[in-house]
Amino acid sequence: MSVEVLERASLQDELDTALNSIQTGGRVVLVTGEAGIGKSALVRDFSRRHEPSVRFLVGLCDPLLTPRALGPWHDIARQIGAGYAEQLTAGTTREEMFGQFLDELARHGQPQVVVVEDMHWADEATLDLLVFLGRRLERLPVLLVVTYRDDELGMDHPLRKAVGGLPPERVRRLRPRRLSAAAVTTLARRAGRSADRLHALTGGNPLLVTEVLAADAPGVPQTVADLVLARLATLDPEAQELARFVSVVPGRVELWALQEALRPRPAVVEACVAAGLLVLSGATVGFRHELTRQAVEESLSVLRRRELNGRVLEILSRHDVDPARLAHHAQFADAPQAVWRWAPAAAERAAAVGAHREAADHYRVALRHADGLPAPERAEWLEGYAYHGHLIGLVDEALAARREVVEIWTAAGRDDKVGENLSRLSRLYAWRSRRAEAEETAVRAVTILERREPGRQLAMAYSNVADLEMHAYRWNPAIEWASKAIDVARQVGDRETLAHALTSIGSIRLGTGDEPGRADLEQAVEMTVAEGLHDHAVRALVFLARIPLEDRDYPRARENLDRALGFARAHDLVGYVQYLTATQAWWRLDQGDWEGAYRDARQALGGQEQPGIGVWFTLTHLGRLQARRGDAEAAETLAAAREHTVDGADLLRVARVAAARAEHAWLCGDTDGVVAAAARGFECAVRFGRTTPRLVTATWYAGELAWWLWRAGRRPKKVPDWIAEPYRLLLNGEWRRAAELWAARGCPYEQAEALSCGTENSALLQALDLYDGLGAVAAARRLRHRLQRDGTVRVPRGPRATTVGNPGRLTARQLEVLALLGERLTNTDIATKLSLSVRTVDHHVAAIFAKLGVSSRWEAVRAGRRLGVIPADGRGPTGLGTTRRGPR
After folding, report:
1. Are 276 and 208 in contact (CB under 8 A)?
2. How far apart are CA 339 and CA 370, in angstroms?
3. Strands 142-148 and 27-32
4. Is pTM beyond 0.90 here?
5. Left if phi > 0, otherwise alpha if psi is -120 to 50, otherwise beta: which for 119?
6. Burial class of residue 696 (count of CB atoms within 10 Å of its CB; 0-12, 13-18, 19+)
7. What pLDDT, in 10s, does the model give residues 564-582?
8. Tell me: the pLDDT tens digits for 212-235?
9. H or E stretch including 263?
10. What are phi and psi of 31, to 5 degrees?
11. Helices (H) and strands (E) in the chain — how many of each?
């Protein structure tokens, strides 16, 4: 038995079982593990055992500096046939390519296995296709096998999200283990070598074991590089030259390219294969492992590596190959003119399939070699880099690039380009919360472009001003500017600006309760998706999600949040992912999923390469959560959030931060601080609400801030009658009805706040239980003091210090509920046993799920047994629901 298949019988059986089950619907097998663990060897053995009765289509992801867009599917296309391969480069959209591949799989009669190797190097378009196929395999007799190095994936690696998007019931995970000491001894004996220290040296990694056993140099080399170079040295000069040439090509080299470069004798290629360095696969040759290729490549001098890359570039440029490959070799050949030619071409191809990160990387490479380039061409590359850089979150780099572009076009006297880039620069300033600069730049753009014949640049400049006015809640001017933009856009046939302006108008209408505004936004989404304008599409999707959340329509907000986040992630729109994740933190905070809100807030703050519009938003939610939990960091977080507000310009920023700061002051017992924080925000909300009737944002924040002032003993003299109903009821003393409205909306903390305004002990104790269930330490402490001061008998003592510090961070009540889940009680039974309402138990179960990171009662019970809360008696709950709130 060879190294590749030793101790792999159970994994082979798993693959065979998956293959046998595809007649009832396709399956996905994920083969994961560290480099050299034997993933590819396992798949190769599987292929050898089942060909030719099974059709195998194999694609490879290459470790290029910037990956080829849809690289493995180009490999697969060539295996399907020349005609199909041509379709992938015929200018079809990514969606059409995906559909064509699905049709090809459906047409084929025999069982099929699609293999994608080294998915950790995949571009975003390839990841999208993985999810696309994985979610549709149930209708096809196809086995999809994917290999990747899971130990090299960061928490935010896009492959993790792609794998998470696969249907779990269709997915099998295989993880080859390191070889045992006994297996390594067996292999050493078969190779006629000593096994002394071999397992300790290699850790049982099959790659390292293979390299050690195959090396002819005396002793045991210390690194893979030593092993590979020792083996390379045993070859004759011609074979060494061949190996060094192949080493500068990531992935594999076509035999025709090798022939043109070196014209090697077959015996030379065979010597490299026999030495275990290279592997022949179809019409390509490459190193057995990427690590061995890197070892040889890194042994080359700088001059030698440059010369070899130049030879590869010269050969490949005479053929129709992916420009990403040519750009890679041009860069390492230090050939500026070749970089000028191929890097922008690679960027355009990546952009065509929505691979924004790869497009930005290619433009960055081009600009790095742009000395001596004519200014107009450099400006075009800077525009491309700024556009894609903005979409992937590199806002500061995009700003710098746009400013340089403006300087270049100004010197060239190109007013049309100056105006266009000023508009785009204005958007970047707005994204970075630099509003004064955004408005000044927007006005400059309009002034310059109005001196010319109306065109698409002027239309977008008008629409950009409308967007700025809209975000400042100056909605009448916003509609006027948007209408001007639409008029010009229709004159010149500019669908991009038409959709952009329509989004602004739709958002304004929806934000004042005008339901047809939703149709405007949906139309904008449809138009922009059809045109491939991902940034404009996600902008409309953001408003479809955020405005219902501002109006506390949580079900609709959840639906549209999922839709917007899915779109932003699928197209690697990093800045929007950050903002939408922060929006989701708001949703979770209001709905009682505080652990989820905390995770979202941290992800939004930590997952962004550069700050954007989501920073103040995220800090506000995080600070509010910290205040409720009694965390000392709350003051610092909310102070940072306040720094990002714009005085009087953005109602949402001013009012939401004011409300959060007022709440924090209240929880700290600082009534003067409540007034100081809430007064300005209340005046701002009232002013905007009077200017724009039925303004959703003003309705809610005027009400909330008036309520905070009332709690601090400073009820405003004139509270508008149009404030949101729960706050109107509270100000009128109808706390029970307000609590019912909050409960109906699924907001446990707000329900508790309303109940805490009551005078009946039963209501106050119910509020206390809700606080404890959520972990609202500060509010619970304040209410507990009030009950004790008023002489309430038997005030619950709250969470014990020992339980607060437990691994699940469960409160005393949550531990009680969890223990009862272990007794197989339903939520209704638990409510009866603990003398609580069923809805309160629902909230406790939801909080338990969130804190333990589970999605079902059974998983919660298992976690409870690990914590020692539930006896390990093998019993489980009868209700196996999977909802976050828990079934009743």
Report:
1. no
2. 9
3. parallel
4. no
5. alpha
6. buried
7. 999 998 888 888 888 899 9
8. 777 655 443 445 677 678 878 888
9. none
10. -105, 110
11. 46, 8
Neighbours of 177 (CB within 10 A): 15
Residue showing tokens 């433009």: 363
111 SS3 class: coil
Band the pLDDT of 1: cuts 50, 70, 90.
Answer: very low
Which of 635, 682, 674, 628 is CA-nearest to residue 654? 682
Measured in degrees and rounded to the nearest 5, phi and psi for residue 493 equal: 70, 40
Query: To which residue do tokens 């006994």 refer?
Result: 182
Eight-class DSSP state of 152: G
Torsion from C-alpha of 714, 717, 719, 721, nearest 10 degrees: 140
CA dihedral 362, 363, 369, 372 (to 10 degrees): 150
Cβ burial 804-815 (10 Å sphere, 16+ → b, else e): eebebbbbbbbb
Strands 171-174 and 27-32, how do they pair? parallel
Q: How many CB atoms lie within 10 A of CB 747?
A: 22
What count of other Cβ atoms lies within 10 Å of the Cβ of residue 449? 26
| Distance, C-alpha 558 to centroid of its chain | 17
Residue with tokens 């009950």: 787
Q: Distance between CA 461 and CA 125 in Å, rounded?
A: 32
Using alpha carbons, select from 713, 710, 716 the residue that is nearest to residue 735.
Answer: 710
Residue indicated by tokens 């014990």: 800
Contact 887, 825 (CB under 8 A): no
Distance between CA atoms of 752 and 294, rounded to whole angstroms? 61
* Residue 88 in tokens: 């992938």
Q: Which residue has the tokens 């309402």?
A: 837
Burial 362-376, CB ≥16 within 10 A → b, else e: bbbbbbebbeebeee
Which tokens is 455 given?
């065109």
